[in-house]
Amino acid sequence: MGDIGAANRSRPFATIGVMNFAPLKNDCFLRACLGEATDFTPVWLMRQAGRYLPEYCATRAKAGSFLGLAMNVDYATEVTLQPLERFPLDAAILFSDILTVPGAMGLGLSFEAGEGPRFARPLRDEAAINGLAAPDLDQLRYVFDAVASIRRELNGRVPLIGFAGSPWTLACYMVEGGSTADYRQIKSMLYARPDLLHRILSVNADSVAQYLNAQIDAGAQAVMLFDSWGGALADGAFQTFSLAYSARVFAQLKRVGPDGQVVPRIIFTKGGGLWLADMCNLVCDVLGVDWTVNLAAARDLLARNLQQQTAAPGAPVASGAATPTALQGNLDPAVLFASPEVIRSEVRRVLDGFATLSGAPGALRPAHVFNLGHGVNRLTPPDHVACLVDEVHAWSRHLRGA
Amino acid sequence: MGDIGAANRSRPFATIGVMNFAPLKNDCFLRACLGEATDFTPVWLMRQAGRYLPEYCATRAKAGSFLGLAMNVDYATEVTLQPLERFPLDAAILFSDILTVPGAMGLGLSFEAGEGPRFARPLRDEAAINGLAAPDLDQLRYVFDAVASIRRELNGRVPLIGFAGSPWTLACYMVEGGSTADYRQIKSMLYARPDLLHRILSVNADSVAQYLNAQIDAGAQAVMLFDSWGGALADGAFQTFSLAYSARVFAQLKRVGPDGQVVPRIIFTKGGGLWLADMCNLVCDVLGVDWTVNLAAARDLLARNLQQQTAAPGAPVASGAATPTALQGNLDPAVLFASPEVIRSEVRRVLDGFATLSGAPGALRPAHVFNLGHGVNRLTPPDHVACLVDEVHAWSRHLRGA
């Protein structure tokens, strides 16, 4: 870590580019992340650049492989911007993969067609785990270059979100060697040798923090942690092996980007709806929720938490620290297989669920960033996404009486 | 339905056998299900008869196939009793499969080695759905015969649990044609043609109710609904498409078996922890929870619900109706991959979590049935199961000060 940190300080990634970025025209997403009032509900979609778009498939065919796509700055820039050409989305998200970080740790990452990611050298023995170290960030320069390139191409249209996998989710892949149905290897380690898992998670947390900070340096205007497998953990184990290490990432993150703007933080734990109260203790601005969560109940939970923060100004909230001020979600992606009329009706249901007043008048209210509860399915008709985005903007303006 | 109902009335299944069953020696499980105090916490395990036991594998090899095993009364009896020979479990559960019911509806059920269940004729068009009808229960006679046979062999050692899939979970398999990762077919139907899904769910609910009632007639002393895929639904959709149809099953169930004893009802929605408050409205005795649920919080929720039922004696609870009086769960099955010491420690954590007092002294407290949060993994060492069962009994007696 020491060496990489020194290298990072002596040669910051892509900061030359940052100074020349165009001013932001649409800051609705960033404002909502920080709990500020907006004229409409901003919307972006997890996996908004992906296989449901024919133009994405064309670029991917040119690139030859998924990693060929993700590791090429021009291709990554191209596919990141593709959904924005079609839909008036309020944010772009870097096209990349959460496994770039463990890939750079030397575990032998590959993506087999139709099989998902594979690690040639999964972490299964103590020696390999003790030898694990944060990657040389220079190996991930293609990611930071892509961030800078996308910022330039965006030209201030909407903000750019950077991202990483959560320490726990990365550890799942690193120990299992790929996707898993039963989490047998990682959970065996968790229960039988928690010390080994804590070591992996510590390295992951520090690596992810450096990685996200380098994305911020390169121009990412918000950052998101994908805790895709947090929901697989038992109550108690989630707090110890997922949440604590996400907190360790957030504790190391830059709060302000090179342009002097606050960089909002988002965390999304798939299947983590039962732990939202615990997640309110994260130094994080936005909690992403999947479709199993009742959005009104989650909003009330965040509102109560905000109220407590305000009621106790002496509470130990670090200077510049964040407390959750917004929710992100949570339409079931399967709704996009239905007709435009049904899509519009379900979008309104989500917006209404969040907007319905409860609690005392004048109470603090968190903001809402519209999203799906998971990624866009590859069989989604692009026109249906257009319909979703349009309804979010139209109905949320309507709800505000505009 | 009319014809099958008539046949059922004129020729009840296996009731001759019921009269001769031996009296129950260990009623701890049944008492806990009904919220009564017990000397120790009863324990049984989902999939306690299964591939982790070499004797199961031997019987299955004799049977030739999974369906050959499940459909043969002698084999089904043999494997149901196998775990009881090894471990002092407090209940037996019928060895069968939730897909027997749609199989009997003529959808062409098969189990391919290593692939899981397949339906040759999944429900994909309106004509097939309109033609769907409850199965002739005579086709499922092998199940009821197995129930009676197991009751005879149990000879009163412990009670026998019968079971079925929830209407929603069965519909998932019937529409998808097998297991699914994204629920694309069924959720497309749910959002695009909810009328078709409601028709399937209605047929399923009535079929499952008849099926469970026939199991009760044959000697099942408790019945359980496995809502294995309820957790895949969005908030709102769960209540409409899963919970409402589980309620429809419970509304039709016999409350008392042929021996005059109350037959407790259990429902387990995997991933349903966020909806426990909704499930408290079911006319059901036991709510099963997976390992993501905080057991103390769930217990407090049930206690508050019980308090309300008591505080409002005029509330519309039908005569003989049940309200949840017990929780079932919720150890992560992956704990069984750890050492005996860790297993015992995690078992104590679950028991302590449930036992820790909160709320007013003297408040109504639900009971606890120990179980895993999902089925026993096939790679589990049988000795580790022995260790779990022993610790549940020993520690729960210790907690009661015995």
Describe the secondary structure blueprint for this structure.
The structure is a homodimer of 402-residue chains.
Chain A: H1 2-10, H2 15-18, H3 28-33, H4 54-63, H5 66-70, H6 73-86, E1 92-93, H7 100-104, E2 109-112, E3 116-119, H8 126-130, H9 141-154, E4 160-165, H10 167-176, H11 184-192, H12 194-218, E5 222-227, H13 237-252, E6 265-269, H14 276-279, E7 286-288, H15 295-311, E8 326-331, H16 340-355, E9 367-372, H17 382-399
Helix pairs in contact in A: 4-6, 6-9, 9-12, 10-12, 11-12, 12-13, 16-17
Task: Name some characteristics of this structure.
homodimer; 47% helix; TIM Barrel; disordered N terminus; alpha/beta; 17 helices; seven-stranded parallel beta sheet; globular; 9 strands; 402 residues
Please characterize this protein's 3D structure.
Two copies of one chain form a homodimer. Chain A is of the alpha/beta class and 402 residues long. Chain A has one domain: TIM Barrel (Alpha-Beta Barrel), CATH 3.20.20. Helices cover 47% and strands 10% of the residues of chain A. The first copy, chain A, has helices at residues 2-10, 15-18, 28-33, 54-63, 66-70, 73-86, 100-104, 126-130, 141-154, 167-176, 184-192, 194-218, 237-252, 276-279, 295-311, 340-355, 382-399, and strands at residues 92-93, 109-112, 116-119, 160-165, 222-227, 265-269, 286-288, 326-331, 367-372. In chain A, strand 2 and strand 3 form a beta hairpin. Chain A is globular, with a radius of gyration of 20 Å. The N and C termini of chain A lie far apart (52 Å).
